[in-house]
Design goal:
Layout lengths: L6 E6 L5 E7 L5 E7 L6 H6 L1 H6 L7 E2 L3
Antiparallel strand pairs: 1-2, 2-3, 3-4
């Protein structure tokens, strides 16, 4: 069963190419997935496009952050 994610927080990792997506459901359970981009992402551009990064999540790939 896919979690019903209500909030997504995208984080640009230090390598500038990996984006961690932290998802939260109504019970505050935490889920995780990551996206690797083929090129470096400028931090300012990343911040300006947060809604687009949130939309890139794959609903089938959420996994619990802690077992």
């Amino acid at each position: 069963m896919k979690p019903a994610i209500e909030q997504i927080d995208p984080i640009l990792c230090e390598d500038g190419q990996t984006i961690h997506l932290w998802g939260y459901d109504a019970a505050d359970a935490v889920y995780f997935q990551s996206i690797t981009w083929p090129v470096q992402i400028d931090a300012a551009a990343f911040e300006a496009g947060l809604s687009e990064w949130r939309a890139m999540h794959d609903p089938s790939k959420w996994r619990p952050s802690c077992p």
